[in-house]
Amino acid sequence: NAGVMQNPRHLVRRRGQEARLRCSPMKGHSHVYWYRQLPEEGLKFMVYLQKENIIDESGMPKERFSAEFPKEGPSILRIQQVVRGDSAAYFCASSPNRGGTDTQYFGPGTRLTVL
Amino acid sequence: LAKTTQPISMDSYEGQEVNITCSHNNIATNDYITWYQQFPSQGPRFIIQGYKTKVTNEVASLFIPADRKSSTLSLPRVSLSDTAVYYCLVGELSGSARQLTFGSGTQLTVLP
């Protein structure tokens, strides 16, 4: 059973470009979470999704950031018009049920660098 | 403002027991407490999870008091390879909303 997969592992973008980060949850998991980790800092919750639904986006910046988890395919975190402050590691986690009662398993992360 | 706090850093020697405490005063009623280990440039790795009292697995123990406002991760006989950042994760109540919150992380350094 493969773990949580994220791609790309490293992504370089210039200011103003778009960044798309993909996350494939573990088999059988229908809940996906995205977290951001700025350099030398801890992990910050961004968004929690179930298939085709955003359950909690309280940690998402109001502008430029969006997330989806379609019926088929991976979850996508999209950052439009990236700025240098978006440079960070973005981690995806998945669980079979709601995160409060089920363990979240993390992917290896995508390291975004904005030039 | 709901906040989950941990000591910033701890040092230990090989073979010692290490206890790391996380304070989570506003933990949601039905939420479990989960601890993760993170090495540089890697994703967090699950260590242990519990709801109350004591949980033990092959790598750690987790102690949770009756009020659940804190939890203590116990690592028996640490080795150099246990040097990492350790995070607790809980669902916290912020007003009427529940928010997933990671602790600030504890950098554990194991010395020879």
Structure report:
The complex is a heterodimer of chains A (115) and B (112). With 115 residues, chain A is an all-beta fold. Chain A contains no helices and 11 strands. Chain A starts with a strand and ends with a strand. Chain B is an all-beta fold and 112 residues long. In chain B, the strands form 2 sheets. In chain B, strands 2, 4, 5, 9, 10 and 11 form a 6-stranded mixed β-sheet that branches. In chain B, strand 9 and strand 10 form a beta hairpin. The model of chain B has no long low-confidence stretch (mean pLDDT 91). Classes of the chains: A mainly beta (115), B mainly beta (112). Chains A and B meet through strand 5 and strand 10 of A and strand 5, strand 9 and strand 10 of B.
Please tell me how large the radius of gyration of chain A is.
13 Å
Strand content of chain A: over 45%
What's the count of strands of chain B?
11
> What's the rounded overall pLDDT mean of chain B?
91
The count of helical stretches of chain B stands at 0
- The Cα radius of gyration of chain B reads 14 Å
Largest sheet entry of chain B = 6 strands, mixed
Query: Residue ranges of chain A: pLDDT <50 for 5 or more in a row?
Result: none
- Estimated helix fraction of chain B: under 10%
Overall structural class of chain B, as computed from helix and strand content, comes to mainly beta
Q: Briefly note the structural class of the backbone of chain A.
A: mainly beta
Mean pLDDT of chain A: 92
Described by strand count, sense and barrel closure, the largest sheet of chain A is: 7 strands, mixed
Distance between the amino and carboxyl termini of chain B: 40 Å
Instruction: Give the DSSP E fraction of chain B (strand runs of 2 or more residues).
Output: over 45%
